[in-house]
Amino acid sequence: MATFQFELVSPQKLLLSRAVEMAVLPAAEGEMGVLPGHAPMIVALRGGIIAVTEGGQVTERLFVAGGFAEVTPGRCTVLADEATPVAQLSRAAAETRVRDAEAAYTAAAMDTPEKRDVTMARLLSARAMVQAAEAA
Amino acid sequence: MASLKALRARITSVKSTRKITQAMKMVAAAKLRRAQNQAEAARPYAERMERMLASLGASVAGSPDAPKLLVGSGQDKVHLLVVVTGDRGLAGAFNTNVGRLARARIRELEAAGKTVKVLAVGRKGAAFLKREFASRISGEISLAGKKRVEFGDAQEIAARITAMLDAGEFDVCTLVYNRFRSVISQVPSAQQLIPTLLPETGAVAPSGAQALYEYEPSEEEILATLLPQNLAIQVYRAMLENAAGFFGSQMTAMDNATRNAGEMINKLTLNYNRTRQANITRELIEIISGAEAV
């Protein structure tokens, strides 16, 4: 099956860079599957799991806490704020994060919709992390 | 001439100094390797961010409601200098070099009639600039005690810069830091952060090629999250280069100090032996002349 170059980078390091058949991204407006020859796109990501398919099977599952993806017909680059392989997620850490995010959400000044969106996104991303940790 | 006892004490003291500088050199070398790896690991993200920003920025920059982070406030009155230095000394001229560049920059800007504000990251830079420009310092961030540079720290600094911009506290933001060229060479340099300097897309890619991208959600929304992230990554990179440069500079400085201490020990030992021989000769003469007198 045809492949395209998939890259996943976080500010800390380059996590993945190889040819894959399909990648499913948690785009801000819903899950999005990327196949070779996809139309050029730049999408924002929410917290969720990136699933990479090679040889007809899902070979990598990584949690990202948000970020961006640039898709071109021959390449897909994900700039993640933070990325961890699902197997390495710790449920306890994820739950602490949810608590922190909830505290930040209740404490945050709700005076502007932008600020609310930021804290809301943080909370949702933390919840997605707990879900991912549970599923692993 | 100093007494034998005093010379002996000096030799021991210089020897222990040499031990310390040697140990510091080793530690700096180990930390340098780690800092360098970290800096290299961050590079792919920065490169791809730049590429994405180039295609996005080009399509938005022209519009009148482009975000402030991208185009600035449209004025050129108040300059914010973010000065990144180490938190500790004993690294040769590392911190001083950045401080000097910042000082020259501040003088130049003030001579041109602009207002200058300084945000000092790292204790040494703050201390250096406080002497002359205490009134311009609007913030000081110390990372002392942290083992490594975390992206979260850079994000905090970026958030602070963004908040200042939103409050209209400055128009142009410049980052002053030591660029890590190699272990023995760090170049103090200034980089403009806001308004964002878009990387040259070149004449090969006309604006038509940029517009091919589809955006989800809208261009503006992506840009609104991408720009703070870009700011954070620029600050992060500067902090990483600063850390790597600091250890490189410290290593060189400590290597020199160790060598100088060795030279000093040689000189003192020579001096010590000469004095010892002179004493013996003098005692012999005293004994012989005493015997002759009998």
Automatic annotation (TrEMBL), chain A:
Q: Which UniProt keywords apply?
A: ATP synthesis, Cell membrane, CF(1), Hydrogen ion transport, Ion transport, Membrane, Transport
Q: Where in the cell is it found?
A: Cell membrane; Endomembrane system
The record's listing under InterPro entries reads: ATP_synth_F1_dsu/esu (IPR001469), ATP_synth_F1_dsu/esu_N (IPR020546), ATPsynth_dsu/esu_N (IPR036771)
Q: For this UniProt entry, what is the primary localization, expressed as one broad class?
A: membrane
Ranges of residues in domain ATP synthase F1 complex delta/epsilon subunit N-terminal: 4-83
Q: What is the topology of this protein in the membrane according to its UniProt annotation? A: Peripheral membrane protein
Gene3D superfamilies membership: F0F1 ATP synthase delta/epsilon subunit, N-terminal
Q: What does this protein do?
A: Produces ATP from ADP in the presence of a proton gradient across the membrane.
How does this polypeptide assemble, per the annotation? F-type ATPases have 2 components, CF(1) - the catalytic core - and CF(0) - the membrane proton channel. CF(1) has five subunits: alpha(3), beta(3), gamma(1), delta(1), epsilon(1). CF(0) has three main subunits: a, b and c.
Task: State the similarity comment.
Answer: Belongs to the ATPase epsilon chain family.
Protein name from the UniProt record: ATP synthase epsilon chain
Q: Which organism is it from?
A: Falsiroseomonas selenitidurans
> What are the top taxonomic ranks of the organism?
Bacteria, Pseudomonadati, Pseudomonadota, Alphaproteobacteria, Acetobacterales
Which gene is this protein's source? atpC
From TrEMBL, chain B:
Gene3D superfamilies, alphabetically?
Answer: 3.40.1380.10, ATP synthase, gamma subunit, helix hairpin domain
The main location is: membrane
Record function comment = Produces ATP from ADP in the presence of a proton gradient across the membrane. The gamma chain is believed to be important in regulating ATPase activity and the flow of protons through the CF(0) complex.
Give the gene symbol.
Answer: atpG
* Taxonomy, superkingdom: Bacteria
Which named protein is this? ATP synthase gamma chain
Organism (species): Falsiroseomonas selenitidurans
> Its topology with respect to the membrane?
Peripheral membrane protein
Q: Which InterPro entries match?
A: ATP_synth_F1_ATPase_gsu, ATP_synth_F1_gsu, ATP_synth_F1_gsu_CS
Query: CDD domains from the entry?
Result: F1-ATPase_gamma (cd12151)
